[in-house]
Specification:
Bound molecules: calcium ion
Helix content: 25-40%
Order of helices and strands: HHHEEEEE
Strand content: 15-25%
Radius of gyration: 19 Å
Number of domains: 1
Shape: globular
Largest sheet: 5 strands, antiparallel
Structural class: alpha+beta
Number of strands: 5
Amino acid sequence: MKTRKQMHRTGGFTLIEGIIAMMIIGLTIAAIVASSAAFSRANGAGIDLSTAEFLIEEVRELTASLPVIDPESGTSTFGPEEGTLAGYDDLDDFDGAVFSPPIDINRTALADFAGFSQQVTVENVSINDLTVVVSDHSSNFVRIQVEILLNGKVISSCSWIRVRL
Ligand SMILES: [Ca+2]
Ligand SMILES: [Ca+2]
């Protein structure tokens, strides 16, 4: 007879273990970026990509807690209802946004990465095929794409899907 704890273990990682693993990964990424200044230019390309991953992650974490549609006006507007970045409170507010210099999770400009920019695209995608873009607010699935540009050239991009619950 297995104890409750043993049965729980067989289900894979616990939430706490998952959170700890994510924190370790986050700290590792931060450490890679922090150490980049010490590296020579020969390592530049690799460091640029590490920075790009870091800058993508900032946008992902910044938007992770936001609702898919505006909490007040719902689906009446696709795009920002608010005048400035500080007021953005839903995902589609970020559609078309370009941050140069890039911003961190707290929406603070990262002057140290002045050559980089984050370009964000938010689109609704089909429930049947997440690669198919559909008209604004016409599905419950939203794809967020972040492209990282260095001196105007795309060096990395990443996209993920959010679901409107
Ligand atoms: Ca909004
Ligand atoms: Ca909006």
